[in-house]
Specification:
Elements lengths: L13 E6 L4 H16 L3 H14 L3 E3 L2 E2 L2 E4 L6 E11 L9 E10 L6 H13 L2 H9 L3 H19 L1
Parallel strand pairs: 1-5, 3-6, 4-6
Antiparallel strand pairs: 2-3, 5-6
Helix pairs in contact: 1-2
Amino acid sequence: MPLAASPCVIQTDLIIGNLSATSKRQAFRHIAERTALLYNGPAEVLLDALLERERIGTTGIGAGVAIPHVKVAGVTRAYGVLVRLAQPVDYDAIDGAPVDIVFMLLAPADAKTTQHLKVLAQMSRFLKDPAVVAQIRSTPDESLIGTMVGRWIREQVQLAG
């Protein structure tokens, strides 16, 4: 469900609700496999990029939320994937809490713009709102989560505008 509006740059290409995983690696594998279908690339390359990014430092921002972000060769545009895990997984987050909400941003390796940084900043604001995170956790299906994200985007555009 693509969502985009200017000046708000968040785009959610895929929403996955209740993803079953028992570890961060397994969650990344499932996310990579689903995302590979979007950009027609190999899931293993995306999985390796996600794992390498985590070796640099955790993308777990606290309160059960993570925002992994990677650049991959062969990707022609940015993709956003919002995931709600069925059960929280150990993530080595900055607060030590397990993670159950993941927003993964995939960007082109050769991107010369700062667009992906704007998306990361906006998603961080969005997912640091306790009411938003509670609503994602309690919303039963992906389309309703997409509606909620879309509503937030419209509100941001109105505030900026």
